[in-house]
Amino acid sequence: MVLLSAASLLLCAPSWAAGVLVLMSDKSPPYQEVADGFRVQLQHERPAVQVIVEASLERAEKAVTANTSLLVSVGMKATRAALALNTRAPILAVLVPKDSFDSLALPANEARRSISAIYLDQPYSRQLAMIRMAFPERRRIGVLLREKNRQKLEALLASARLQKIQVTGELIPNASEIIPALEHLLGASDMLLVLPDALLYNKNDIQGVLLTSYRYHVPLIGYSQALVRAGAIVALYSKPQQIGYHAAEVALRYLDTGDLPAPQYPKYFTVSINQQVARSLNISVPDEIELQTALQRREQEQ
Fold it and tell me: C-alpha dihedral over 111, 113, 119, 123, to 10 degrees?
């Protein structure tokens, strides 16, 4: 029995002796929360796995060891730094926008290296399902995008057709056209869906968008807790800690099987509702937890 147990331990040794290097783009709280959530969850499941967190990209090369089996890069800056490291360890990029990751230019020598991601974005199907559940009487959704994001609009329209929701999109050349296009769009919309776009919805412009939608009595659907605090009626997003937990699950799968899954949307998510905005617009809204639970149940049943 003792010999059999020892043999079993030896068979498991490559996974348990493995090391994971977490590279953060910087020391800002969201990146730190992802790293902390990842480390806590992974070491809860596999206490013997060494997890090194490095916030200085300049020291990243020295942090790579012979036992580094996986690189977890938090943010696009860290992902680019991970690609430049002198190691063949696979990369799991997290907290990265889908567009940025998908357009990442890989070095020629990275063709056979395993690289995957957990996107920052929420899938359109989840966002539209939330709107349908929370506001069943509001089926005309407006969305404002830059002209370069035409393919994104087409994907959203395809997802909306499956859920029998009408989506009207306005494509504009640059941020200076936001308000005129928005006023045209709001006249034919029951709700305004705002998608992440740092060039379109920056700190200077988002307040104008919120005020204009409020003036038209069209509630705004956001993508972050900050937008809910600013005046969006509801937002669907993944907290950094939730991304960290998801990343730990993917890392455990890799340590067990040696395979990274395809890039994917966040598994865990949060719904936040601004009750004050809902009352001001005289709109009935469900309970946050009930709505989030209903969305989770929907995805489990699919």
Answer: 60
Other C-beta atoms closer than 10 Å to the C-beta of 296 total 15
b/e string for 90-125 if b means 16 or more Cβ within 10 A? bbbbbbbbbbbbeebeeeeeeeeeebbbbbbbbbbb
Residues of the chain with pLDDT > 70, as a percent, come to 92
The C-alpha atoms of residue 193 and residue 131 are separated, in whole angstroms, by: 9
Tokens of 181: 């296009």
Instruction: Dump strand ranges (E) for 25-137.
Output: 50-54, 68-74, 91-96, 115-119
What's this model's pTM, rounded to 2 decimal places?
Answer: 0.88
Collapsed DSSP state (helix, strand, coil) of residue 170: strand
pLDDT at 108: 60
Sheet holding 140-146: strands in order across? 166-172, 140-146, 191-193, 220-222, 234-237, 270-273
Give phi and psi for 164, each to the nearest 5.
55, 45
Partnered with residue 222 across adjacent β-strands are 235
Beta-carbon contacts of 47 under 8 Å, excluding residues fewer than 6 positions away, are none
Answer yes or no: is 262 within a domain. Answer: no
| β strands within the chain, DSSP E | 19-24, 50-54, 68-74, 91-96, 115-119, 140-146, 166-172, 191-193, 220-222, 234-237, 270-273
Res. 27: pLDDT tops 90: yes
Q: Are residues 158 and 221 in the same domain?
A: yes
270 phi/psi in degrees, rounded to 5: -135, 145
Does 264 reside within a domain? no
Q: Say what the pLDDT of residue 17 is.
A: 57
When pLDDT is averaged across residues 58-67 and rounded to a whole number, the result is 86
**One domain, residues 149 and 296:** yes
CATH number at residue 66: 3.40.50.2300
- Helices (H), ranges, 195-263: 203-215, 225-230, 240-257
Q: What is the pLDDT of residue 1?
A: 35
Residues 102 and 206 in one domain: no
